[in-house]
Amino acid sequence: MKYFWLLFPLLFFLPAGCSEPKEEYSGGREIEIDCGPSAPEYLEDYVDFSDFKYVRLEANDSVPIGGVRKAMVFDGRIYVEDHRAKGVYIFDREGKFISKPARLGSGEQEFARIGDFQIDRELRQLIVLDSENGTLTFYDLDGDFIRRDTIGLDAVYFETTAEGYLFYQSPYYSPQDDVQPYHLIRTDKQYRILERLYNRREVSGLGIPVPSRFAKDPQGNVLFAPVYSPFIFRVEQGRLTPEYRLKYSWGNVLDVEDLYSADSDPKALLDRLSEGAPQYFNGWLIENGDQLCLQTQKGLVPTYTTYFDKASGRSLTLFSLKEDASNYRNILFHPVVGSDRGYYISAFSDASAIGLMKMEQARLPEDFKNAVLQHTDQDNPLLIFYKLKDF
Questions:
Q1: Which of 125, 127, 282, 350 is most buried when burial is the number of CB atoms within 10 A of its CB?
Q2: Gene3D superfamilies attached here (predicted)?
Q3: pLDDT tens profile 125-184
């Protein structure tokens, strides 16, 4: 069956047993996600090219970046996680290489698996999570090692908070076989657990890597978007408060409990998903000042990117990539891997895709178009910084 491999993580990890009673949520500003016939085909029609820039990351033998999964900008430096070359790199704002502090390996200061990284803006430190060994490693902003802490959690990604940290714990881990674990763990700076939140069942995106479903707004509030939920929550002490409610034009969110019901037929579930059942995967939650961006998935394959204005609820949704590759130029702007003072950040690295992008029809600045056309597999990615016009 087509895309059968994507279901392996789902079927393998269907847990038995029960969970604590589910809390019912309501409220939040309604955000409509509509990708009907009137949806725009190309994001370039909405990009403000009067306030647009791109940076080619320096390439040399020690900096072979394959694909950027996450990018952050702070104090004149660009921090990127490379999902293929397995490391965290630091560049200046012009793309000049500074250092590679985090890399995979078995050495004393190396990583078994880089799950996430954050910048602690108050302490001016880079923090990298090893999601396999359960450690946080701290560096100064230039990448010089400070210390490594064991956190004692099976965390996938994290965010800094005023009192310490908020961790997202693996949905497949539980100290008790018959109890569904809590996913959100709030700790102090010594990793003492302050509280556990959100014990609904989840699946980690059917095996699709997700940088984080946390985002921090300018006021320091942490937002959380579960995999199967119409809500984006604000994480508060003792509770999750719905901040936004996603309204999908093509149907309701599939209740995750349907996936785990004891009488579920795996083959029927596969058939349902392959036919494009309304199953939604909220990922790549990107905070960008007055706006938020997230990516959703319907069924097994189609993905949609939604940008929305926080105050008004106005939204723009695009079909990220069509199966016939007719809108392939959207890979210049999707997925969004970060933000910087109102700019969304994307990364272009796939030179083999240039022939599918119909660049002769592109409504792009000539210098940027030429930079894309001249890109080779030996080059490091282009980091693209863009803002949107009103939508």
A1: 282
A2: TolB, C-terminal domain
A3: 999 999 999 999 999 999 999 999 999 998 989 999 999 999 998 755 444 444 557 889
Residue 1 lies inside a defined structural domain of this protein: no
Bond before 335 cis per omega within 30 degrees: yes
Beta carbons within 10 angstroms of residue 123's beta carbon:
13
Q: Is residue 16 part of a domain?
A: no
362 within 8 A of 354, measured Cβ to Cβ: no
Hey, which residues does 73 pair with through a beta bridge? 78
111 close to 128: Cβ distance less than 8 angstroms: yes
Tokens of 366: 């000539």
Please tell me the distance from the alpha carbon of residue 336 to that of residue 356, in angstroms, as a whole number: 20
* Tokens describing residue 16: 């038995």
Collapsed DSSP state (helix, strand, coil) of residue 168: strand
**Counting every residue, how long is the chain?**
391
User: Each residue of 320-339: pLDDT tens digit?
Assistant: 777 667 788 999 998 899 99
CA angle 329, 39, 369 (to 5 degrees): 20
- What is the maximal distance between C-alpha atoms in the chain? 60
CA distance 287 to 294: 9
By the 8 A CB rule, do 116 and 108 touch?
A: no
Nearest alpha-carbon partner for 217 in 243, 238, 179: 243
Q: In 139-276, where does DSSP find H-type helix?
A: 256-260, 266-274
Strand order in the sheet with 164-169: 155-160, 164-169, 184-188, 193-197
Number of structural domains (the chain) is: 1
Is residue 20 included in any domain, yes or no? no
Asked whether residue 233 is assigned to any structural domain, the reply reads yes
CATH of the domain at 363: 2.120.10.30
Q: Which two tokens stand for residue 22?
A: 């589910």
Rounded CA-CA distance 280/15 in Å is: 20
Question: Measured between alpha carbons, how far is 155 from 168 in angstroms, rounded to an integer?
Answer: 5
Beta-carbon contacts of 248 under 8 Å, excluding residues fewer than 6 positions away, are 33, 230, 278, 280, 296
Give the dihedral of Cα atoms 262, 263, 268, 269; nearest 10 deg. -20
Domain limits at 181? 25-386
